[in-house]
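Entry for zinc ion complex. Fields follow.
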Amino acid sequence: MTNDSSQHTDALVLRNAHLVDLDTGTWREGDLLCVDGRVAEDGADVPDGARVLDVRGGFVLPGLIDAHVHVTAFTAGLGALGDTPPSYVTAQAARIMGGMLDRGFTTVRDMAGADFGLAKAQSEGLVRGPRLAFGGKALSQTGGHGDNRGAGTLLHDDHPCCAAVGRVADGADAVRVAARDELRKGAHHIKVMASGGVASPTDRIDSTQYSPAELRAAVEEAEAANRYVAAHAYTARAVNRALEAGVRSIEHGNLIDDRSVELLTEHGAFLVPTLVTYWALKQEGREFGLPEDSWRKVDDVLGAGLGALERAARGGARIAYGTDLLGGMHRHQNEEFRIRSEVQKPLDVIRSATSVAAELLGMGGEIGTLAAGARADLLVLDSDPLADVAALADPARHQVAVVQGGRQVR
Ligand code: ZN
Ligand code: ZN
């Protein structure tokens, strides 16, 4: 690096591009210059030595953001992660993260499992993958979605160094300690399990988890640190009490009602549907390690998800892109675009995976936009995704290049 501004080696210009305007849903023809990892002002001089990428009329979007992933979930049997050496889990996570970047995702929000070390390794370039907003381990009550013991297991072995995705904390004080501990370790958000789930062995989908006092304790601790709480929740009963307690993002939300949508908009909260994972779990879950008991629970949520998305979109709720894929099913990450476009316009689905997700991550203006000053995270496609969302759903066919921090990474 040199101080001489005429000697920029870290400049990239995309020539002959269609540049998206996400506010209007239109394209502008032109070049896009990136300098020192950020989008330059329109019309700025191209520095000598800038690399040139002629995209030949390709369509340029901000790099995609997936707001619900588990980068350590190399198996759908999440209970096994705690018994797997963390070194092995990290190696698997590096592979999974590389795959996400190759599918156009330049930032992801990890919803349990990823930690400070993995985010640091990515930011230092040791691991090739999307930028990581992580929450550490998810907080769960005993017998909740983050308690991976089967009913026949009596011993509770919740070792803090293992690679499990959850930690059990019961009672408001213990929830506070657990939240503070995750925040101490750099958590971008606190994940709580506020209802039953598919992958947990002993709970029911329709159970509520955590008392209002416990949920509020997590919210208070997160807000004290200028962070927020994301809650795994399926039914309206679980979703609405989480929103009333101050939770900022609802994960899944397949069985919400009209009151849920009112609460989402009243509180400025976000809904993060993860529709593709139920489809994938039903088709392939057992093959990739989902236990039989869990597989039977998939039907409880599979059919309702698209209706919930439609209800939330109609009510004007902020909706972010999420996938929640596990094990060998990560390869379906872009299929969520196709599923959502059954009830939403392509522009709205694209906003979910760019500008809206950026707001959820507290990074509005920084990522998820092509505006000057934003990080130069870009996706180049060979066809117009506003006309046909298949351009995003099928990256192997339509993706021309991925740029992250001003560097072409694919
Ligand atoms: Zn969940
Ligand atoms: Zn999840």
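NOTE: Confidence is low (pLDDT under 50) at residues 1-6.
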